[in-house]
Task: structure prediction
Amino acid sequence: GKEHIETALCFVLVGSICYECEEYDEALEHYNSALKIYTYLSETHEDLLCPVYKGLAQVYIKTGRTKEAWRLLEEAEKLCRKRVGKIHLIMAEICEILSAGYCSKNNLKKAQLNLNKALVIKKKILGGDHPLVADAYEKIGAIYKQKHNSQKALDSYSRATKIRVHKLTEHHPN
Result:
């Protein structure tokens, strides 16, 4: 049915594909459809709003609606802390999106703070040698590079490289 939780999940998935294809209007339409369903289903599925808010915020950032994006990301962060706790991959993703936003505003200190939070979360959940941990190190290295701290950038990039060399085979999809 059109007000079922599984239908909302499908809207989120289609919205994420539309986002990846840079079809932002369609992505917004699908995320908003999911949001309506989750809102209708009440607080019992409040935790499912986090990925919807995250997806909407990403679209808003890409379309220049940064104030709306920040509001949603802050709301998603509050919901995630309340419903799923600080240690969840969605929290890491939210921290990374916030970091990108801070980078675009040239606030490298807050950008780095959020990336460090994402790294801690990913390491606790996935272990220190997961490719997503390597991604976090690479993003942190980019911040250090922007801050003209070559030694720390090199250290972060080296950690990312070490994980990738160890974990990614030639047949890995990435």
Notes: The chain has a mean pLDDT of 87. The radius of gyration is 17 Å. Helices lie at 5-20, 24-40, 49-62, 66-83, 89-104, 108-126, 131-146, 150-167. The longest helix spans residues 108-126.
